[in-house]
Write a structure and sequence with these properties.
Radius of gyration: 14 Å
Number of helices: 4
Strand content: under 5%
Oligomer: single chain
Number of strands: 0
Structural class: mainly alpha
Order of helices and strands: HHHH
Largest sheet: none
Length: 105
């Protein structure tokens, strides 16, 4: 199993788990993890010249940034968390961000 794939899956699970009531510290940890993963994916997509994905994941990274956090209600975070989890899983399953020579056959 690929480490990158596991990282995307784990981040998606953390996002879905965030839909449940948790301690404030969990949401701060979630911000750090999602921010880091999205910055990484954005960087990889930039290297592959996939501009739309670079901007998409860059925007998600800004949304989850832990340094200047954006505060929304749970009602707003709920669909955002679900959409980002689906986005990360789609990246995992479609091998977006993986150079063509490294894609499994």
């Amino acid at each position: 199993m690929d480490v990158r794939s596991s990282l995307f899956r784990l981040t998606a699970i953390l996002l879905v788990w965030g839909l449940l009531p948790n301690a404030y510290a969990y949401y701060m940890l979630l911000r750090v993890v999602v921010f880091g993963v999205c910055v990484y994916v954005s960087y990889e997509c930039r290297n592959l010249r996939r501009d739309k994905l670079t901007w998409l994941f860059g925007g998600v990274a800004i949304l989850y940034n832990p340094f200047l956090p954006l505060y929304f209600t749970r009602a707003i975070w709920f669909p955002i968390d679900v959409l980002v989890a689906v986005l990360l899983l789609s990246v995992r399953f479609q091998n977006i961000g993986v150079p063509p020579e490294r894609k499994p056959r």
